Amino acid sequence: MRNRLSVVCSLLWIVPLLSPAQDYPIRPVPFTAVKVTSQFWAPRLETNRTVTIPFAFKKCEETGRIDNFAVAGGLKKGTFRGIRYDDSDVFKIIEGAAYSLASHPDKQLDAYLDDLIHKIAAAQESDGYLYTVRTIQGDSIKDVNGAGKTRFSRLEGSHELYNVGHLYEAAVAHFQATKKKTLLDVAVKNADFLVKTFGPDKLVAVEGHEEVEIGLVKLYRVTGKKAYLDLAKFFLDMRGRADKRQLYVVGHNQAGHVPTRHDSVYFQDHRPVAQQTEVVGHAVRAGYLYAGMADVDAVMGSKTYRPALDALWNNATNQKLYLTGGVGAHRSGENFGDNYELPNQEAYAETCAAVAQMLWNYRMFLLTGEARYLDVFERSLYNGFLAGVSESGDQFFYPNPLAADGKEKFNMGLATRSPWFGTACCPSNVARVLPSLPGYVYAVRPGAGQTQRAFVNLFMAGTGTLPLEKGNVRLTQETNYPWSGVVKISVEPEKAGAFSLAIRLPGWAQGRPVPGDLYRYTDTRKEQIVLKVNGKTATYVLEKGFAVLDRSWKGGDIVELELPMPVRKVLANDKVQADRGKVALERGPIVYCVEGVDNGGTVSNLSISDQTQFSTVSAPDFITAATLIKAKENGRTFTAIPYHLWSHRGPGEMAVWLPKK
After folding, report:
1. What SS3 string covers 514-564?
2. Which of 15, 100, 165, 648 would disulfide-bridge 211, Cβ 3.0–4.6 Å?
3. Domain range for residue 346?
4. pLDDT tier at 4, thresholds 50, 70, 90
5. Is 527 a catalytic residue?
């Protein structure tokens, strides 16, 4: 096996010293090579580091999630506390903490992780199996309906493989941040056990909650063990294979259960994944599945799943995507709805589902180089995901509805953000996503017979060092994005030379809120995008949504981009019944909403007409620095705020979509 010690990582990506010969044609620039100074993002990343991660670990201590490992490992006496999938929360927070360590060395956090990993290693059984609820309860396991009486006997609900998928991601992140193999050894021992257990001539089964495929690919990248990659593909290929195994139905082991068509659909287990064309079932599981399919295709150099991925993405984006970038219409089952079924107040749009959409869309960009996937990524990031965590970093949304009456307890029993949940997948996902965010800003396309290319995917003030074959290129962004569309990029190559710089021109700046026809602007005029190099209007090629500048670059070159940011009125496709006769507001990548607290206590009397005039107000002392929208008609005014900032001032009425007069 090759030496892979000098490596860096992100939530998506592992970049070894010697990369595998086959992988995504476009490679992300690791988050450790990007320093974010953005007035918008830098405070949030710091809050995640200093508040969210310590807070999440404390909650894991208080709720028994960490003690479960100590009890399973014989380090202390006790019983299992919590739910069978709680192990995964600990792993996700470790992953986030490892990203934090990689960019902000912290001896105290490092020592805390060492102690925690000691407990996890103790909880692992001698053959590599790791699942605290079964190890603690043994043959008398009480969580029979969820965990199964014996190992892997109830995979549709046990989360046995889901948990360790997050273990693998955490282990890789920790190894690459600290160079310690303590958690990686646990992960490898478990993965080797799975390789011995599952396969064509062994146990033919798949996990009910997809995720392990993503973790196995990451583990393959850092260890070089192809068996892990093969196992990930096996799990994908056995899903929906009624000729190989019994398909999952909700409660199929329960006496008297009558299966319905929707049971296997819930698990994306209704047909082979390469034949699936509609996003269905549990929205988080689905997003993780599609991300795993993209990973396996990329690393194996195949296009086995590509037709399905294209069809699934078109369905998700053109028929099942909320304006906020969230997905999942049904609270019952946390499921996708039917095509164009996008209720507002009843919307689920789980924070974790937004994360899954981001992971999937970024991988689709890496496969294709198409900016439309980044457009969806950005929409989810600034709206559907970011609403899931408070500015203080210790309050969270599980669902993210697009309307609220201030009374309904939509958020796991509350009408506003909560400090924690019994099922805490969303807070732990926030803890790991935010510190990895700088790793999504830039990407590179190696030469391989083509001109080397540096991609600017997202606009964030700060500096990134991009590895090109002829030397590193340092890109420095100066911008107040997302409140301003003015971006200045300083280009500093180690050696002057030719390469192409590809700068994403967001769909919203070209008159398209989303790639398809699910949403449209009322004003069809295309505002002018200004792009200059060294003060002169630049000639560029628009390629797959990127402005490509192909030239010889030298130190001191300056690129200036100006994206128009008028207030835009948005209409939904007429097939979206919930939004017929309604209008929403956007500015740049930000979706806006109205809250009762700003508008006399109610939003039910607000509407928008063709005569409504809009202006923007810079509000540095709002909940946080933000740009607000002021609407005026016939002497009456109302205020709209960024959707991600709603419910910071207590429960109340809120709406993204307003009646159109």
Report:
1. CCCCCEEECCCCCCCCEEEECCEECCCEEECCEEEEEEEECCCEEEEEECC
2. 165
3. 8-440
4. very low
5. no
